[in-house]
Write a structure and sequence with these properties.
CATH architecture: 2-Layer Sandwich
Distance between the termini: 22 Å
Strand order of the largest sheet: 1-5-4-3-2
Largest sheet: 5 strands, antiparallel
Shape: globular
Length: about 130
């Protein structure tokens, strides 16, 4: 099982892909709690030129509460990350596969929650 879901977008700019990803996440009840611009950060911190690459940290509050209530250490793997990157002249969007991420968690309740979240994240990827 892959630890991610992914799709390649054609005919859209990097910025459009970021915006579209945010819109599709919103439709599934997710908001962006943080955004990491690796191109900018790597330039500032290491003076390295890197391709456009942003990580969108997405959170669905009802599922976050459900998860934190089921397992108080689960915050170590929250939120659900999406990576948007410019790769080989195209835009690729990938997300965590929460089912794969929960394989090491010994909780059937968390595995059930992961299944539900995976369906939502896969729908986001498919809608792009």
């Amino acid at each position: 099982m892959k630890y991610y879901f992914t799709t390649t977008l054609k005919g859209v700019s990097f910025e459009e892909a970021v915006e579209k990803t945010q819109q599709e996440l919103k439709k599934e009840g997710f908001g962006i709690v943080a955004e990491v611009d690796f191109q900018k950060t790597l330039k500032e911190k290491l003076n390295v030129d890197f391709r456009k690459y942003k990580v969108l940290e997405a959170c669905n509050p009802p599922y976050a509460l459900k998860s934190l209530t089921a397992d108080d250490k689960i915050g170590t793997v929250l939120p659900c990350n999406f990576a948007v990157q410019e790769k080989d002249g195209q835009i690729e969007v990938s997300s965590i596969n929460p089912v794969a991420a929960m394989q090491t968690v010994d909780s059937q309740e968390m595995k059930n929650i992961a299944d539900e979240i995976a369906e939502k994240l896969q729908r986001v990827i498919n809608s792009l």
